[in-house]
Amino acid sequence: MGVDVWIPRHVAVQKNTKSSLWRDQSVEQYDQPLIPISAKESVEHTPKDSSSEPILVQPDVIEIVQQPIQNPVTKQHKTIDLEISITLSQFRLEAFVLRQSVLLVETTTLSDAERKLWTNIQSALSGTYAELNWPFPLLNFRDNRGVGAYVQGFLDALTLDKKILCLGQIEFVRHAQLMPLASLAEMLEQPRLKKRLWTLMQSA
Predict the structure, then answer these.
(1) Its domain of life (predicted)?
(2) Is residue 10 assigned to a domain?
């Protein structure tokens, strides 16, 4: 009869008078209460990253105590200068320069006999006479603290590669080439001491 699908009689036929579309359907809404979350609780429940926090390391404190450095050479020079400033007020050094040696005498308090002997020694051989007087002629250079350098400079100028034959002990004279001998007074008392001086002078 031109109908492809047959519907049994016992099945009721329901007519859909209204077309059902998805857009026409109502969506059920479920109202749920909103629970507010405070900022404090949010911070407390946030895990802390320990790697981002700086680590404070207490440095070791090392105490450095600086000890004063003492220079024995400087100390010795100061001692010599102090002794000179205390004991010296005036002196006179006389030197007689030979080819290989220098005769040195402190002539401040020589007696007449000692002065005569010293003159005879100088006339025995050919040489050059030199002297040093203290205090220094210039007022600005009369400080006793520099007298050691003054004497040292005098000797260095005369004794280049030469021995210093010192007649008697002179406390304020220090030199590497110094050779102490008997004083003029001792030579007058013991004439044999003149022979040793004469031998050294001839070898020079």
Answers:
(1) Bacteria
(2) no
Residue 86's pLDDT is 41
% of the chain beyond a pLDDT of 90: 37
Instruction: Say how many domains are in the chain.
Output: 1
Whether residue 26 is contained in a domain is answered as: no
Q: Is 101 exposed, middle or buried (0-12, 13-18, 19+ CB in 10 A)?
A: buried
| 46 part of a folded domain | no
What's the domain range around 122? 73-203
Q: What is the pLDDT of residue 12?
A: 53
pLDDT tens by residue, 189-203? 999 999 999 999 988
Q: What is the mean pLDDT of residues 74-95?
A: 60
User: Which residue reads 């001792």 in tokens?
Assistant: 186
d(CA 90, CA 134): 5
Reference 124, options 148, 96, 156; nearest CA is 96
The DSSP secondary structure of 1-34, one letter per residue, reads: ---SS---TTSPP----S---STTSPPP------
3-state secondary structure of 93: strand
